[in-house]
Amino acid sequence: MEDISRALLGLIGVWMLWRALSRGHHHKHEGEAVGVMAGLIPCPLTLFVMTFAMSRGVPGAGVLFAVTMMAGVALTLSCVAVLSILFRQRLVGFIAGKPLETISRTIEGAAGLALAGVAVWQIMVAA
User: Fold this and answer.
1) What does the alpha-carbon distance between residue 103 and residue 109 come to, in Å, rounded to a whole number?
2) pTM, whole model, 2 decimals?
3) What's the sign of the alpha-carbon dihedral 85, 88, 90, 92?
4) In angstroms, how far apart are the furthest CA atoms of the chain?
5) How far apart are CA 7 and CA 59, in angstroms?
6) Distance from first CA to last CA of the chain, Å, rounded?
7) How would you class 16 by CB atoms within 10 Å of its CB: exposed for 0-12, middle for 13-18, buried for 19 or more?
8) Rounded distance, CA 36 to CA 31, Å?
9) CA–CA dist 42, 5 (Å, integer)
């Protein structure tokens, strides 16, 4: 299951790199599609803890762990979102007058290359 997760993240990275290099029209809802794809992959730790808790006859402990982990992820993502909004305000002032599309494509390409590289590295290490 973890290899599938790594492969999917690698594909997302390659897709981001392809998008950054292409000059075509980009659909506005692609970010949501990536989020849904990433959300479909279950967390291996949560699956392990739930299986362990059920085998020990305490499914409530597994559910409590899953809820606590979900709350932690939600808090972390919320903080990242707030920091992103604050950082965006400063970034817009910094890049004013510069070709925004070029900067955007460069950032997306670098992120895609990094994501694909990490996925390939993780697959190689796990093998």
Assistant:
1) 10
2) 0.47
3) negative
4) 62
5) 31
6) 13
7) buried
8) 9
9) 9
Q: What would the two tokens of residue 43 be? A: 């967390």
Please name the residues in contact with 105: beta carbons below 8 A apart, sequence gap of 6 or more: 20, 21
CB 19, CB 113: distance < 8 Å: no
- How far apart CA 80 and CA 34 sit, in angstroms, is 17
Can you tell me which residue has the tokens 């982990």?
69
DSSP 13-57: HHHHHHHHH--S---TTHHHHHHHHHHTS--HHHHHHHHHHHHTT
Q: With beta carbons less than 8 A apart as the criterion, state whether 115 and 10 touch.
A: yes
Read off the pLDDT band of 90 (50, 70, 90): confident
Please give the Cα distance from 66 to 74 (Å, whole number): 12
Structure confidence by residue, pLDDT tens digits, 106-125: 888 898 899 888 888 888 88
